[in-house]
Amino acid sequence: MEFTYAQAIITGFIQGVTELFPVSSLGHAVLIPAWIGGQWSDFTTNENSPYLTATIALHGASALALFLVFRKRWLGLVSSGAKSLIGRHSRESSVFWRLVVATIPVAILGFVFEKNLRQLFSNPLASSIFISINGCILLTVELITRSKARSESIREENAHISQSISVKSALAIGFGQSLALFAGISRFGISMSAGLLRGLSHSTSSDFAFLLALPVIAGASFYKLPDLLLSENSHLLGPIFVGSIVSFICTYVSITFLVRWFKSRTLYPFAIYCLIVGGLSIIRFAG
What we know:
Helices cover 76% and strands 0% of the residues.
């Protein structure tokens, strides 16, 4: 498969912008080539295409940006989680183990159903439907929880997460996050929606969703890394490296924007965007 530097830059930009926005980066990775057509459409329709592998590889850059933004938080959580193994429990260790529990379902389901999900990846109509469903989920959750909205200070976020999200709830959020295995359902959006339904504020829900995103994004990237090292994919390394730089920059900017956005704003604009894009794409690809 030819994967030019220009295509890598565009793909990296799409990945970086949409990975943490609640609009589904994987859904956009399917729909944009389908909309452009020509050689781009072969990226998803050709079963021998390593485009999915290349796209997931770009997730590694997004994972790095996500870690750097929250590095102090993650280092503290991992340290507290390790200390809890010797009996030194804390609020931070509770949050760490809830993140571990919430990551387990998507890791297992992603591994078991990888082949089936890869087939769905080639279907732009399916992605169009799932993006529309994603918009409906975001809109419905906002309507249900708007009367419960409240703000939390940053220093209270760990406390609120540990008090409001039990291990059982974390597992439920993890299963909810598994819906993002379908191209078109946003991992961040579904995780944040679950937090809102648990009574968290937008700020704290997004905080937990940001933390929960890192293990899955990094895990998927590392899982696919050996495929990039195959000799038949060696010609992709240069474009992917350039695309990764673009993805890293765009992800970093997106995260800093969203952290500020969800301190006082809602999911409504993203819900409307998904409904419009999903609806237009259903019309486009249903024929």
